[in-house]
Amino acid sequence: QVQLVESGGGLVQAGGSLRLSCTASGRTFSSYAMGWFRQAPGKEREYVAGISGSGLIRSYADSVKGRFTVSRDNVKNTVSLQMNSLKPEDTGVYSCASRNGGVAGPYVQYDYWGQGTQVTVSS
Question: Cα angle vertex 74, ends 60, 76, to 5°?
Fold first, then answer.
């Protein structure tokens, strides 16, 4: 069982920045690929970014490339999402998810999910 807890959400003006963190329980965090997803009101959940267990392979949705950066610290069991140049359309509940092995991506199966943290970007 892996527990994931997100933090760092909040209200920010357009053009601003936020840094989200996801802390995982468990002893083998470095074996988990991690993904970030978001869900806006009335919309389906969408993939935002992901990172492999080693941190060497990262992927991003086209809508966030060049603005968001995913990183991880396998000593602290955390994965982070640095979000810059935020836009109102980035508003949503951001959740992290883990999968054992492999790489993160929009079409792979994830084993565990966090509860999410709200990000609101005002115009």
Answer: 115
Other CB atoms within 10 A of residue 2 CB:
18
Phi, psi of 30 (to 5 degrees): -65, -10
For residue 4, how many C-alpha atoms fall within 13 Å in the half-sphere facing its CB? Answer: 27
- The single-letter DSSP state of residue 26 is S
Distance in angstroms (rounded) separating the CA atoms of residues 29 and 99:
10
Q: 30-65 burial, b if ≥16 CB within 10 A, otherwise e?
A: ebbbbbbbbeeeeeebebbbbbbbeeeeebbbeebe
Q: Rounded CA gap, 20 and 100, in Å? A: 22
What integer is the mean pLDDT of 51-80?
A: 97
Q: How far apart are CA 8 and CA 54, in angstroms?
A: 23
Whether 38 and 45 have beta carbons less than 8 Å apart is answered as yes
Give the pLDDT confidence score for residue 26 in this predicted structure: 79
